[in-house]
Amino acid sequence: MATTPHKREPRKTNAPASSTQPRPSPTAAKAKAKPKAKPQPADSSTRATRVLNWLLRKLPPHQREKALDYLVLTRMDRPIGALLLLWPTWWALWLASADFPAWKLLLIFTLGVFVMRAAGCAINDYADRLLDPQVARTAGRPIASGRVSPRAAVALFAILLAVAFALVLLTNRLTIELAFAGAALAVLYPFSKRYTYLPQVVLGAAFGWSIPMAFAAVTNTVPPLGWLLFIGNILWSTIYDTEYAMVDREDDLKAGAKSTAILFGDADLPILGMLMGTFLLAMLFVGQRAHLGWPYWLGLLLAAGLFAWQHWLIRNRQRDACLAAFRHNNWLGLTLWVGMALALAVR
Questions:
Q1: Is the pTM of this model over 0.85?
Q2: CATH number of the CATH domain containing 267
Q3: Which of 172, 196, 250, 339 could lock 296 by a disulfide, CB 3.0 to 4.6 Å apart?
Q4: Owning domain of residue 288
């Protein structure tokens, strides 16, 4: 009986793979061997991420990846938030001291800014662990993507809070007492977006609580100037965090989260314009009460120009433009601090 073609087929498969299949190119083999990149938050700073990778370069791969996950959890890949917290703290230190503050307090509060911001980010991601995966910008965060456990985030929050409290213990009793309210605000903010459309206002209070603490540390009291500056910071935080919330407005609506961007709706641009004007007015009163000279008034004028540029950026409510406007507030905070510092130095 003649052999059928399909019975001869097994003999062909015994031949070397190179003779029956095309050899994969080196490029294809390299691409196949390359590990899949871990998801990262869409708003991570490329420059900051490069710096973090460089700092961790000598660690073993597994430890390096885990360390990077915790640094991303605490937003070290996005230092803009720490800077937005730093400038009001420095405003308060300089105004309370009426000049360059004592080095001890400057160091305590500067370190405290970064520690408390990191703690706030850890508890924020814990609170948003079910919400973040539904939002495009935050889906790559460590907890949302499963790279850090919720329990580990809470443990890290507790450790950072203890470090911050240890720093506060180096000040006076009034500052220590105020620190408890600051810790409560830091815990309250992440959960406020579930029950109120004003989480940006809560954020402003949490971010600005370093202002009365700074006045208390320097003068052992919180004068009206300190509370005026605190109110001004709430206005400013509401402005830049609303710009930030405009990036996620559509995703937040689907996920059921609340924000001032949703509350303001189509009136967001005129309301932001009014808030900007009110903030500038509050800072004008700050300059008057502190008897600041021309460098501050020049800085305030430049701040008004920076606000005008932000408003122009977000005119079409495009996501990238709103994110750029949010980040632009770093320059506004810096400008006002330089104006204050120079005005106090030359008077």
A1: no
A2: 1.10.357.140
A3: 339
A4: 79-346
